[in-house]
Amino acid sequence: MLTRAQLDTFQEEGYVVLPRVIPDTLIADVLEELAAIATDLVDNERQHHPGLDDLASLEHFAQLIELSRRTGKIYSQYFDMSYPTGVTIPADTPINTGPALFSFITSPALLDCVESIIGPEISSNPVQHVRLKLPEGTLPENTTNSLVGTVPWHQDNGVTTADADAANILTVWAPITPATIESGCLEVIPGSHRQDLLHHCACPEGFAIPERVISSLDGSAVPLEMDPGSVLFMHKRTIHSSLPNQSTDQLRISLDLRYNPIGQATGRSLFPDFVARSHRSPELEVRDPGEWSALWEQTRERLRAGVEPSAFFRWEPNDGMCA
Ligand SMILES: O=C(O)CCC(=O)C(=O)O
């Protein structure tokens, strides 16, 4: 639950960070789940590239960093709990909908906080990611994949479709490893949620608010260093971005989740939402991680059939407003 003072901060600043929300055991479970994926990946790559045999002596995530550096490949999709947006995907596109992630999304301590902000009828919004931000020096050249690199300035309202503009979508961001200025924490512009939705322009990472617009705004960016267990709650129009990971050997691992009141549009209607908590109709709550996983499997089948980018993006790449 948020205190009155914490709720006031959320209203005033457009965000609030709460320490020690998520139990250590849950953080450990998520780390273990991700480490197992990393190990499988490395084992699989070693079978095809005997030159990678020495990786076996490294710790799981060090193996992944070194694997990415040596192969120049991006492995983010194996860890993410969403599919790529706006594209038709192949049948073998991986996704990570493991039970530890499900336990995190539905964690009672987290949902108590979410309830304080959006009320007791809570849907898990499918705009969600697992990010393993690689050290800059190990990123393949010209990488623009924001699951492993930086994220430019944006409002989350700008990454959902316009049908959800009236929805009360809350962003929840949680570090699984320490998020520091060095490892590439988030930065936010306090009070920026009072802006309307700003125009986002096409950029290599997707869509972003141009730097010239950011520098003309009142208020400067605040980096949010956070420890695992703490949680950031953020308004959908709060302007934010994330810094590069300037460490040499640390993965910055985080989850970004979203929730909205049951029945409201999610802004990504091709992806599955589910009832995470309902006081009114508890029988609607999804409690089985397998059920959640199946929803995403069914989604993959739909995406294989072909998608229109407009089903995901509100901005036109060449709309004449970004020159
Ligand atoms: O985790 C990050 O680096 C960026 C996350 C973000 O911008 C978001 O969740 O909207």
Structure characteristics:
globular; 323 residues; six-stranded antiparallel β-sheet; binds 2-oxoglutaric acid; 28% helix; Jelly Rolls; four-stranded antiparallel β-sheet; alpha+beta; 8 helices
Describe the overall structure.
There is one protein chain. This protein is an alpha+beta fold and 323 residues long. The protein has one domain (4-307): q2cbj1_9rhob like domain (Jelly Rolls, Sandwich). Helices cover 28% and strands 18% of the residues. The protein has eight helices and twelve strands. The strands form three sheets. Strands 1-9-4-11-2-12 form a six-stranded antiparallel β-sheet. Strands 3-10-5-8 form a four-stranded antiparallel β-sheet, with no helix packed on it. A two-stranded antiparallel sheet has the order 6-7. Strand 6 (201-203) and strand 7 form a beta hairpin. The longest helix is centred in the N-terminal third of the chain and has 25 residues, at 24-48. It binds 2-oxoglutaric acid. 2-oxoglutaric acid binds at residues 131, 151, 156, 173, 186, 240, 242, 254, 256.
Helices, strands, pairings?
Blueprint (H helix, E strand, L loop, with lengths): L3 H10 L1 E4 L5 H25 L11 H12 L4 H4 L19 H7 L2 H11 L3 E12 L17 E4 L15 E6 L10 E3 L12 E3 L2 E3 L2 H5 L6 E3 L6 E4 L5 E3 L9 E10 L12 E4 L11 H16 L19
Antiparallel strand pairs: 1-9, 2-11, 2-12, 3-10, 4-9, 4-11, 5-8, 5-10, 6-7
Helix pairs in contact: 2-3, 2-5
